[in-house]
Amino acid sequence: MDIAIKTENLTYFYNVDETGDQDIPDVLDNVSLEIEKGTFVAILGHNGSGKSTLAKHMNALLLPKGGTVTAFGMDTKDESLLLEIRRRVGMVFQNPDNQIVSNVVEEDVAFAPENLGVASPEIRRRVDDALKTVGMYEFRNHAPHLLSGGQKQRVAIAGVLAMDPECIVFDEPTAMLDPSGRRDVMEIIHKLRYERGTTVVLITHHMEEAALADRVIVMSDGHVVMDGKPKEVFVRVEELDELGLTVPETTRLLFELKNAGVDLPLDALSIDECAKVLADKFG
Ligand SMILES: Nc1ncnc2c1ncn2[C@@H]1O[C@H](COP(=O)(O)OP(=O)(O)OP(=O)(O)O)[C@@H](O)[C@H]1O
Ligand SMILES: [Mg+2]
């Protein structure tokens, strides 16, 4: 198994307290994880459970206070590897306005490879390719601030793609988007995972998005509390409820029916599977 990101006993706390108080709780407590190359992993967890803190360790935006993080075998604490780590592990955040730096879409997408010193013809190729991948090529000469939120997020993703990363960490990329913008982002993630073999880490509060992943990791108070295939994780409805998390609508429906005495498998996660078990039972 080839590993993209590995954390070993990762521990982290923020130096928040200016009074020098040492009694700061660990935001990540001994987190050990391996994220396999080419997989799509979703990370769930209540607000403040440590998801973003974990994400920021994956490309050395934060460095461990305890334990180690390696990205494609590179220790994130090794300063000489910083640029290479940042190039190979891209990050997309919630608010596209904070990620867009230029007044023209294609200049924005070219920004990172230009800074990396990539040759001009190669930049042209990458920018066009990235914009086509996210469906924003026709907008290449537009001003980003006039685009919709979903379009801006697609431009931000293109900017990351132009670095030619092997792994992209998305931290709630759809949180500020309408349903159509959310769908577009999920389609891009699907394309990256299945057509390019990009490793995708997706932090999300949308269970339907997590249901599409190869693997779901659930965090609570700085710990990994569940880790498995979506079907394995989402059948644990009561535990997820206790953690303040919901489950996909399909699972919820099957769970409620089960509570009402109708015996159905809870792991019919996709709408098609769910429709089928219902049709088999009642049809
Ligand atoms: N820059 C910071 N300085 C101090 N404390 C922070 C900082 N960022 C996060 N924290 C604290 O660390 C804990 C974990 O935060 P983190 O942002 O990693 O959680 P999260 O799971 O991403 O939450 P959310 O779902 O709200 O995005 C929280 O208690 C938070 O208040
Ligand atoms: Mg967060």
Could you please describe the fold and organization of this structure?
- With 283 residues, the protein is of the alpha/beta class.
- It has a single domain (3-247), classed as 3-Layer(aba) Sandwich (Rossmann fold).
- The chain has eleven helices and ten strands.
- The chain has helices at residues 51-58, 82-88, 105-115, 120-133, 149-161, 179-196, 207-210, 230-234, 237-242, 249-259, 271-282, and strands spanning 3-12, 28-36, 40-45, 66-71, 74-75, 89-92, 167-171, 199-203, 215-220, 223-228.
- Strands 6-7-8-3-9-10 form a six-stranded mixed beta sheet, sandwiched between helices. A four-stranded antiparallel beta sheet has the order 2-1-4-5, with helices on one face.
- Strand 7 (167-171), helix 6 and strand 8 form a beta-alpha-beta unit.
- Helix 3 (105-115) crosses helix 4 (120-133) and helix 3 (105-115) runs parallel beside helix 5 (149-161).
- The longest helix has 18 residues, at 179-196.
- The protein binds adenosine-5'-triphosphate and magnesium ion (MG).
- The site of adenosine-5'-triphosphate has 11 residues, from helix 1.
